[in-house]
Amino acid sequence: MSSSRAKLLGLLIIAAVVVSGAGLYCAIYVRTEPKTIIITRTGTVEKTVRNIVLVGWDGTQRNHLKEMISRGEVPNLVALASEGGLVDIDVTTGATDTKAGWTQILTGYSPEKTGVFSNSRYQPIPEGYTVFERLETFFGPENIVTVAIIGKKGHVDNDPPAKIPFDQWAKTEARQGRKVPTPKAGLKVNDGGQIVEENGVFYVAFPGKPYFNASKHMDLFLNGLGENEKVGTTAIQNLEKYKDKRFFFFIHFAQPDHVGHAYGENSRQYTDGIKSDDEWTGKIVAKLKELGLYDKTLVYITADHGFDEGKTTHSNAPYVFVATDDPKINRNGDRADITPTILKRFGLDLSKIEPPLDGTPLDEPAYVRVTRLGSSAAIFSCWVVSVSMHDLKKPTCAYTNSHSSNSP
Ligand SMILES: [Zn+2]
How far, in Å, is the centroid of ligand 1 from the Cα of 257? Predict the structure, then answer.
């Protein structure tokens, strides 16, 4: 029996339909695999959590990262995870791209709830849905600082809706060497734009970007910083600035995604991009220690999507990770599990969040809840969800296979 087959059979699913006064409930318990132990925990200090720093390594493929861990090339990630853990995260809903990825990580919702399906199909995330806004509401704006410091310009942005005259848009496109279409009302163009016609004049209309609503409630939203050095130094300056306040920082490094698109996943540049992320993450952790904040700050490192093996794309790249000094993290999970993990550690009551979050904190067993159903619908839904959760584990097997075939 192959190990992947054994893994599939090792998955335990218990589905139950419960009748309560409020209606019929379907609860499904999925016993996921225990977290992958490739980093040994050396010492754990239980922190009283005041702050959380979420660090994004955009486009880091899990398999590539694990190979780097085995070669000792990401010492800062390993040092962090030796206090908490490193777990596998799979993407099961939404595209494996930047807009869909960070939106899910920062809201805990599937694209059906946020309207952010992919880099080209999106809208502003509905007001109040992001981690930043949840924390501002929970603590009160005076009692928490929420900050996003972002390497990318496009895809992790807060621009308002825009309508640009077609001719002006066409000039910019042509200057960038892109083919300009003949204008026709309803035609979709790059970056989620659509051609509209008003009184015989053509325009290109763009929806507001994902963080258009959220950024209004944040203390700082800075994007388009470009390279890691700018992101890292800006983050460190702001940690100093806000050291006396409770804070949530999202620090986004555009590497290795940028070099991955230029040189491919198997390139030296891609590896160097991850090394640079590691180096800057180390400097951020060192700053937290220097400021005396490390013992009350949890740090999580994750990625929005992986990378297609050996390619310059991430069309089907659902294998990522969470590395953290949070010792409570104890299982592999889904991209939707990161938001509930963060909110729970800040003390929010997840059962009060509307609409209900899709994921479950990474220190609890994964549940899927289907509520208030007719009896046959409940049983059918239990079956459908069981099957889909079973499918959910298939990528892990695919990952195992590709890993072994790529091993030297
Ligand atoms: Zn990309």
Answer: 5
- CB within 8 A of 56, min separation 6: which ones? 102, 105, 250, 251, 252, 253, 301, 302, 303, 304
Q: How far is the CA of 58 from the centre of ligand 1 (A)?
A: 8
Q: If you measure from the C-alpha of residue 371 to the centroid of ligand 1, how many angstroms do you get, rounded to a whole number?
A: 37
Q: Are 32 and 11 in contact (CB under 8 A)?
A: yes
For 229, list phi and psi in degrees, rounded to 5. -60, -45
Q: pLDDT digit string (tens) for 149-191?
A: 999 998 999 999 999 999 999 999 999 899 999 999 999 998 8
Rounded to whole angstroms, how far apart are CA atoms 214 and 129? 8
- Distance in Å, CA 236 to ligand 1 centroid: 25
Give the DSSP per-residue string, 265-315.
TTSHHHHHHHHHHHHHHHHHHHHHHHTT-GGGEEEEEE-S----TTSS--T
- Per-residue pLDDT tens for 289-302? 999 999 999 999 99
d(CA 321, CA 341): 14
Pairing assessment for the beta strands 297-302 and 319-324 based on DSSP bridges: antiparallel
181 CA → ligand 1 middle, Å: 25
Q: Enumerate domains of the chain plus CATH numbers.
A: 1-31+367-408 (no CATH), 48-157+217-365 (3.40.720.10), 162-206 (no CATH)
Cα separation of the two ends of the chain: 22
Place of tokens 């980093």: 39
Sheet with 162-165: strands ordered across? 162-165, 201-206, 194-198
Strand pairing partners for 8?
Answer: none
Predicted TM-score of the model (pTM): 0.82
